[in-house]
Write a structure and sequence with these properties.
Layout lengths: L6 H9 L3 H8 L3 H13 E4 L6 H6 L3 E3 L2 H13 L9 E5 L7 H11 L8 E5 L5 E2 H4 L9 E7 L4 H4 L9 E5 L4 H4 L12 E5 L22 H5 L10 E5 L2 E2 L3 H8 L7 E9 L17 H5 L8 E7 L6 H7 L6 E7 L3 H14 L7 E7 L26 E7 L3 H9 L6 E7 L12 H4 L8 H19 L5 E5 L3 E5 L5 E3 L2
Parallel strand pairs: 1-2, 1-3, 3-4, 4-6, 5-6, 6-7, 7-8, 8-9, 9-11, 10-11, 11-12, 12-13, 13-14, 14-15, 15-16, 16-17
Antiparallel strand pairs: 17-18, 18-19
Helix pairs in contact: 2-3, 13-14, 15-17
Length: 494
């Protein structure tokens, strides 16, 4: 029996197991359970949402899904407070078992004080938000990562009286207004390396579907949160779901040591170009947000960019890409029409030839396209073949251009993951006729999805034949078909 082995050997065996197998092993007998308690409690995730079995089996965290299991865990932890010292990571993600906020808070009031060695706290659920009032009960000295949807920002002044030198990563979601951000004193986190600011919440809501929280009203988000900060040595900065303007660059330069920034993400943000919105303008100002920020990004290696403006102007993006040296780029290009899309996309790809890119994700959008087909000529993508260090590539392409894409992919000898966003614009019919009738690729075909699968499976063979290094291919139509092709080609259930 394994429980007869020395404890050191048991711990070595336990270290090699995923959490699913570890829980099963701990249930074999009482003595083995006691030995494995520190590993079982090291990382706890509460998530009742549906997940793929393969993900569960490979997980390195103890996942709690049911209300019964959650209550059992909380009661056992409160009854044995010494177990609290074993918990290094505690996360609530996506959805939690159906427990009232009052009951959950009562449990947390007794649980938080005993988490003496907590390293990471993630609160990525919408129902409810985590009150900063409860964080007063949590020992913060060893906390390294804090993230989630928060409320009761007014207690922040009394919550953190002394600097938290150990905090490396901070993620603030769902702050709603700039006045809430102003209550966070960033000078209390002198060793912060990773900062995320998102106006929208993170996670699924049980009460509201398609939750939209972003407000187009221009507020001084960045000046509010960085009011007391100076020379933060951030390695990563994420701005999400907010409005920004060129004047915000001065705020960032004073608050952050921008040349040390390695990763910058600007996601679902809108740039305010003009103070007076009552006039119709046809050209952008001479200097925009990225123009002012770009010269300071000398150390930037990774860029995620989804920044739009009223004029769908991408000239500042192109100027930025000509001034930095990236190994990773994830960009969503917003254009006025198909003609400007092709021009902007071609210019952006040409500007990337000199970059040592290993990971490139390109996507495009035309607002109010009215279901017109968006065409991307294959010549626009031809310069991708010059990015010979690419390991991951995502790009928009038309179905009819697959054969023309093969010579380009054959040149990318280090490519392992190919993600193609396939343009298969559907006809939207306002009638009682089944929508599938309008979506069929072949008249009389009753299974469009099956037809796509067969076509994509055949193309996988072609792409794999031209590039033996490929391991995964993804076709997005908008449904995703993911194929593994390391040994044999097979569809992966996503």
């Amino acid at each position: 029996m394994i429980d007869k082995l020395p404890i050191d050997i048991i711990n070595i065996i336990a270290h090699s197991l995923n959490q699913f197998d570890l829980v099963s092993l701990s249930g074999t007998n009482k003595s083995l359970h006691q030995i494995l308690i520190p590993k079982l409690y090291k990382s706890i995730t509460v998530d009742s949402s549906k997940t793929h079995l393969q993900h569960e089996l490979s997980s390195r965290t103890t996942t709690i899904k049911s209300l019964h299991s959650f209550k059992l865990f909380l009661n056992k932890l409160i009854k044995n407070p010494q177990y609290g010292g074993f918990i290094r990571h505690f996360a609530l993600s996506n959805e939690i078992p159906d427990m009232s906020e009052i009951m959950l808070n009562k449990y947390l009031e007794r649980m938080f004080p005993i988490l003496t060695n907590l390293f990471t706290l993630d609160w990525f659920i919408v129902d409810p938000y985590l009150s900063f009032e409860l964080l007063k009960l949590l020992p913060l000295e060893k906390l390294c990562n804090l993230g989630g949807n928060f409320k009761n920002f007014e207690v922040m002044e009394t919550l953190i009286r002394q600097p938290l030198f150990g905090l490396k990563k901070l993620e603030i979601f769902g702050f709603n207004t700039a006045s809430n951000l102003s209550k966070i004193d960033m000078s209390k986190f002198p060793n912060l390396h990773d900062l995320t600011i998102s106006k929208n919440s993170c996670g699924k809501s049980r009460k509201v579907t398609n939750l939209i929280e972003i407000d187009p009203v221009d507020e001084n988000y960045l000046s509010s949160i960085f009011a007391h900060a100076q020379n933060l040595n951030l390695a990563s900065l994420t701005l999400k779901d907010i409005c920004i303007a060129s004047v915000d660059v001065n705020v960032l330069i004073k608050a952050i040591n921008i040349p040390n920034l390695k990763e910058l993400s600007i996601i679902n943000c809108t740039e305010i170009m003009f103070e007076n919105e009552s006039f119709i303008r046809r050209s952008p100002p001479p200097v925009l947000f990225l123009d002012l920020l770009g010269p300071h990004l000398s150390g930037l290696e990774s860029l995620v960019l989804d920044l739009s403006n009223d004029l769908a102007d991408n000239t500042s993006i192109l100027r930025l890409l000509n001034s930095v040296y990236l190994s990773k780029l994830d960009i969503l290009i917003t254009c006025k029409n198909g003609e400007s899309l092709n021009e902007d996309l071609a210019a952006i790809i040409n500007s990337l030839v000199s970059h040592p890119l290993k990971d490139l994700k390109l996507d495009v959008i035309i607002p109010n396209a009215n279901h017109k087909k968006i065409t991307v000529p294959i010549t626009t993508l031809s310069n991708l073949s010059k990015l010979d260090k690419l390991q991951i590539l995502k790009a928009p392409v038309e179905h009819r251009h697959f054969n023309s894409l093969i010579p380009i992919i054959s040149e990318l000898r280090e490519l392992m993951v190919l993600h193609l966003v396939v343009n298969t614009q559907k006809i939207v019919a306002n009638s009682l006729i089944d929508q599938n009738y309008f979506n069929f690729a072949i008249p009389g075909l009753s299974h469009l999805e099956e037809n796509f699968f067969k076509q994509f499976f055949d193309y996988c063979k072609d792409f794999k034949f031209c590039n033996q290094n490929l391991e995964y291919l993804i076709f997005e139509t908008p449904k995703k078909f993911m194929f593994e092709c390391r040994n044999r080609i097979e569809l992966i259930d996503m």
